[in-house]
Specification:
Largest sheet: 37 strands, mixed
Keywords: Membrane, Transmembrane, Transmembrane helix
InterPro entries: AsmA, AsmA-related
Transmembrane segments: 7-29
Domain AsmA: 2-622
Strand content: over 45%
Radius of gyration: 47 Å
Distance between the termini: 204 Å
Region (Disordered): 422-441
Number of strands: 37
Amino acid sequence: MRALKIAGIVVGGIVALVVVLLVAVVLFVDPNDYRSDIERIVESKTGRQLTLSGDLHLSIFPWLALKAGPASLGDAPGFGDEPFVSIQEARVGVRLLPLLSGKVEVGDVRLAGARIRLITDAQGRNNWADLGEQKEATTPAPADQKPMEVPTIAGLEIEDAAVTIENRQEKTRRVVRDFNLKTGRLASGEPFDLSTDFVLDQEPSLSAKVKLATKVTADLEANAHRLAKPEIDVTITGQGYPKEGIPVKIVANALSADIAKELYRLEALTVTTTWKGEGFPAAGVPVVLQAKDFNANLAAQTMELTGLALDLAGGKLSGSLTGKEILDAPALTGPLKLDQVSLRQWAPKLGVTLPATTDPKVFEKLSFSGTVSMTKSTAEVGDIVLQLDDTIAKGMLGIADFDAKALRFDLNVDRINADRYLPPPVEQPAKTATKEPPTPIPVETLRNLNARGQLQVGEAIFAGIKFTKLKLGVNARDGKVRFNPSQASMYGGNYSGDIGIDATTDVARISLDEHISGVDFAPLFKDFFETDKVSGKGTANIKLTGSGKTTDDVMKTLDGNVDFKVADGALEGTDLWYEIRRARAVLKQQAVPERTGPARTAFTALTGSGAMKNGVLSNNDLNVAMQYLKVTGQGTVDIPASTLDYKLIAAVLKIPREGADTAQMQDMVDAEIPVKITGSLTDPKVRPGLEGYLKNELKQRVDKEKGKVEEKLKDKLKDLFKR
């Protein structure tokens, strides 16, 4: 007992001595006397100038605490005169009695008015790299030395801090300002409350005010941490955003990070906002993003995102993602689906105004499903099933290289009537009707286009033309665009073509190599030219080139060759034989005959070829075979003006039996009658010229009458000599 008493007296004496010494330090030692020594030591270790402009205050009981006033640490050479770090006030304390027994209990740590500047200059150097350099070799700790016990901290408080991150090489500047943080007691493995708020400025266009509250558990020994029920409120302001800002709320069940095992997990994430700004509805666009679970294993380089759901103003998008090699060569894949929505009702909710359409019932059904695949440089959506109204498209669409913007696609469409989506026709009075302006050729867009793929359509209507089994190949790069193969079945026949566009200069050059065979022209002309004046089945070959900045320019510069052949057809609305009969009757001052059949000129064959120059086709070998006539001749077709001018010769082979004047017309057999065709392509005017025929007939009559007179004269002379 005496030994214990003596030991107690010794220990108490030692403690009393320590207390007396510490009190003596506080009473007789002023830490400000060591200000210059501290500044000199820091400068020797860092190469930076430390300035302690405020008072240093030391206290003992119950805390051994140090409080510092304003202080700053200079920046690295070449980064300006402003300090690298500056503070207005700092305070840290250690509880005295536990410290005497070897335990570290840190009191409230407070930092106010901190300013930190992180700068990368134009040469790529930064102003913090030198602080990480080792000035002296460190002596490793003995192998048998136990690691220091992790201290507890009564609380951490940061007030009015700011960090400036400036990259002068990339000319970017970000600022975290008005930063405040407060925690409860910090002890390894024990949960504590944490709240923080700050403003992030992405100069000059974006500012985000952030507020976070959560309960944190930090197991420093196991290096595993967890945020329970984190709630984040963000308000976004800046250029293009409303003055009051856009509020965004982010909540989750938990965020876990097992750094030792490199495992990370986010549970039950929900992000809600009402997005506003220029181009969006005044009430905003409601957005709800949810994710059931996100897991990342950095050691195995895998990730999984499940239960992904996006509600965008009533449009519901869902999916999931899995990934591998997410650090070295990330590859992500997963399904994506858009539930059916009425695009006509949904688009206005997103601030999108749909164009007026010929068919007001389009844009009613929209749905989508597919499989997304992404890497660092590529993105693809495969297994696409896209429905728009009555059209279903399947296939793939992707970008083969982000840097090159290389678009790739392979789509198969069952049917589409593109004309339903065109603007409705606008009727204008004849006096105010104006020609539509020419369509500019988007040279710059074509020059930047990098696309390769094919489109197949089962049934299609484009610009009034009906196609089936349409196949269109696209290959575009470096300003050269080629549509090949271009194939389709149309109007009982077939089409094939090769279309090229050279947009390497400011003036586009277009080449056409088009072929049609066995096409029924009656429905084709009715659908494309809105005329029913041509019928027959035929073939045509067109090989042309043109150049210009607009479609009109191209039409006016078309050069090349054309040939065509049409069988068993007719020019509807024009009866050439009747026009010949009528003209003959007028010139002979006879009664105009009545038409006995429909106004049409039937033919068994129509052939021709020609050369096109500056959009005008010169055709010198037109040949039309008909039952009663054979027509040959030459003329021109002006494509830009949609007019024609032909001079033909109609040789009468025989006289039709139909008609009351058939017998009177027999004198026309073997006659060659000039015919002139002029006017528009859709409404040509046919004018036969019988003047030559009548002059020849008159000459024959004169010669005949002259012969009769001569005979009579001879007879009279004979009678005279007989007398």
